[in-house]
Predict the 3D structure of the following.
Amino acid sequence: MIERLKDAPETLIVVEGNRRLVDIPALKDIAAARNDELKFIYIDASQETRCARYQARLKEMGDEPVAFEEFCRLEDSETERELTELREIFAKEGIVINTNELDTNQTMQKVQDFLGLS
């Protein structure tokens, strides 16, 4: 990721799914070296909402649903454990958007507003 971002010609770069604390200083360094502004956006939802959305995706693919307890076990990994700290960083240095009650269009509107694109 870091090597690809250094020379990317785009003026707006989206790093989706960043779940590692170790990446934050590197992203800040890259933004500084490019003389770019770095904005953090954390798209969040409750575990219940994430589970329901996961179940819907499984159903669309024709896969069997998993019990909520199994979903919780799937989310209990080392990488996922860093999310609390990432959420705190993003809340302090950017924005956290809770999507429990938002559809995709409403979520994207909040992102666009935060980025000054609307």
Summary: Strands lie at 41-44, 95-98. Residues 2-103 form one domain. Residues 10 and 40 are 17 Å apart (CA to CA).
